[in-house]
Amino acid sequence: MIMPIPKIIQQPNTHRAIHNGVTTLVNAIRPTLGPLPRYLVNMQGSKLELLDDGGIIARRIIQVDNRQEDVGVMLLRQVLWQVNQHVGDGTATTAVIYEAIYNEGLRYIAAGANPMQLRDHLMQALQPLSDMLMEQRQTITDIESLRSIAYSVCYDQSMADVLADVFNTIGRYGQVDIRKGHGRGIEHKFVEGSYWKGGVQSKEMLRGTKRLVVESENTAILISDMDIKEPNELIAFIQLAMRLKIENLLLIVRSISEKGLSVVLNERIAEKIKVVIVKIDGFVEDDQIQARQDIAFLTGGNLILKAAGQTLDHVKESDFGSARWVWADKNNFGFASGKGDPRQLRDHINNLRKAYSKAIDDDHKERLLNRLGRLYGGSATVHVGGITDDDIDMRKTLVERTVRALRNALEGGVIIGGGTALFSCQPMLKAKAMQQENLEARAAYQILAKAVEGPIRALLNNAGCDPSEVLADLTYCASSDGFNLMKNKISNLAEDGIFDVAQVQLEALRRAVSGAAQALTVDVMILHRNPETMVDP
Predict the structure, then answer these.
(1) CATH class of 195-340
(2) Per residue in 102-133, pLDDT tens?
(3) What would the pLDDT profile of 482-510 be if each residue is shown by its tens digit?
(4) Domain 143-193+377-412, what architecture?
(5) What is the rounded CA–CA span in Å between residue 444 and residue 126?
(6) Fewer Cβ atoms within 10 A, N terminus or C terminus of the chain?
């Protein structure tokens, strides 16, 4: 069998193809930037989508017809999806900066600059630019600022109002559960205490309750990873609880058989002690282990573990934790006012916060954040409605994106919005360029000086303004002044409440610079005749 010969693309065709691919994708994303965005229509058979998120647009554009240009699309697409996954927003800003760096870089390479040295100097020049951007950070202190940040992401006032209220109440680490709603709008409610996915082990425990939720006050809690199969595994444990005069008991186990349930559901036992048995859901075993540890700190209980050779027969009075109020339904369980030691709980939370601040992997950070939210006890449920299922799914995705932006804003602060903060770094970059003797070092600063204009130019173009005229006026304004697109004039953006999330802008800048710098070093492309189909970025 004769294998197909791959096609090899070399310079100058390589740079030309990547440039055309990048331009194709950026032209699809650029119109979505700003408070006056335009939409991209994506047709899949009879399904029509209106998209205004750069990360989603990049993922929908799987492949362009010209396979050489498709390489440029895929290089940028990967960068945009990384930004989307890491901070949830900022993809349009990333795309615009990436394109400017790549296009300007090609000009200097054509003039004799070495691509590898240019890449190194671009990465070196990124540091002072990032530092200057971070010097402009302000902390979030009130609900109005939260509302402004939320609106700058979702451009939906009712959604911004709800999410600002949520985070103003539950704080940076609060637990937010986003669900599909039944109406057309967006609603929210706050949940007292902490809760976990899992729920009761038998629906019989919900019989006769209001809203199919079993509740109890002043409840003892025992945490274990047991699989209870036989009734005799519970007898000694139940007798101990009765001797201790426990009236309400929450038992956390991995599983329990029907025969085991028959013990706690027995009417004679139920008259003396009300037992609710729940499980902790989780695809990853570590998540369940960590949930048990967190519950132990919150309630003051001790873990009863199979790995330690323990059984329920080993339970002592000191192993029980407790909480003022406990509830459970078929999907979740939770409690409020756990009786754990405040000092130990505080130390545990501080350790998790340190781990969260150092975490690099997004999945690991998300798990730590969920744990912190439960430990702090601030929880909210947001119900997202809409006209159709597709509409609800799109709005739910938008809520998730906005929630992530608000967390980042509370964690890392905000900067003046509208592309103004990036544009204000341009004089520093130009001054640095003048100080460089090396061609590639000077080119790197000049490239970045041009690139930081990209976002504000795109914003002005999308709003129907003349970028050159506005930027000329902004050159002589105060540092807090910028162009308010909604008012169509230059004003104090801080007073107007127009901000960008600092971490989002920094992530967009870093990914754009590193991605474009690497793309500039691509000299040869090998295109296989029958490539494997890939869906993920």
Answers:
(1) alpha beta
(2) 999 999 999 999 999 999 999 999 999 999 99
(3) 888 888 888 888 888 888 999 999 999 99
(4) 2-Layer Sandwich (3.30)
(5) 9
(6) N
